[in-house]
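Reopening this one. Same input as before:
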Amino acid sequence: MRLTRRHPLLVTVLLCALAVLAARPSDGAHAPGHGSGTGVSAEVARLYEEAAAATRQYQAGQRAAGKQRAEAQRLEKLLDRERREIAVLRKDLGRLARSQYRSGGGLPLTAHMILADDPEELMRGQRVFSQANLALDNALEKSARAESRLARDEARAAAAWKKLEERNQQLADLKRDIEQRLETARWKLQGQADASVTAGSCRGAVRLDQPRTHFANPWVAPVETYELSASYGSGGARWANRHTGQDFAVPIGTPVRAVGTGKVVKVSCGGAFGIEIVIEHAGGYYTQYAHLASVAVDQGEHVTPGQWIGQSGTSGNSTGPHLHFEVRVTPEMGSAVNPVSWLAQRGVPL
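Same output, byte for byte:
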């Protein structure tokens, strides 16, 4: 369901309301309860989940296409073998036909039988003639069966390839639709995030449908699928000092997970980190999740390992979509420790 098609008046009202909220001065604190369930941000999150489901269908289709391709290749190998067998049969037919003409004067076998001098020679010639004809008939029948089987298998192989091509075209169309929907959803989400950061005011938690998961380890990685980019302690023109966290290169809208049990102590939407969440864990450690596009928790909430707490983005001082993840010994900047080794000590290698 697309809200913009079915409820244009509601969209207009929501946009006006959001514009008013964005214009309000704020200290960056998260307003509990705002935006849950029905806002434009929630609709964008649902569109992202819809696209994610379509991606799973596409991947399943790709696996099915792979099986079909393997079947087509198997049939092609079978056809190659049958073609070689038919070529041998044709050679045998030529040899048998030539063997029926055996005489010094080039007379056919039947002529030699007619000119035989005695009955025994005639009978012997008749047996040879019958055997030669039987061998030729058998070879012709075998060749005909092989030719028929080859034609049938060629038709099967052609049908398999046609089916594969049709399926691949369907998958290409599906993939194109997925990419368009993902791009639209991601940049709608990011547009809201940029507006929040500019206003310095968070829109409120977007309650995402949590996946049914069970983790044997009480600690998990902050995102499920990722590529590591800028690492802890690395230098460069992008930072005044050394990089204080580990960056995970992920597309806008990727669900961000709480790495462990804890309490949300900060949700803010302004400054260099853009939209960020800070969680307090047992043992005096804090984890930070920055440059988000949306949040799914309110300040003061308790979270569990793997719970979706927001969606990644490129808000704040960011050069591209990624999650900036930090581990600190205080809730504020300046107390970061290496997050990679910290997670590794808890059984989460990155």
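So the earlier flakiness isn't reproducible anymore. For the record, The chain has six helices and ten strands.
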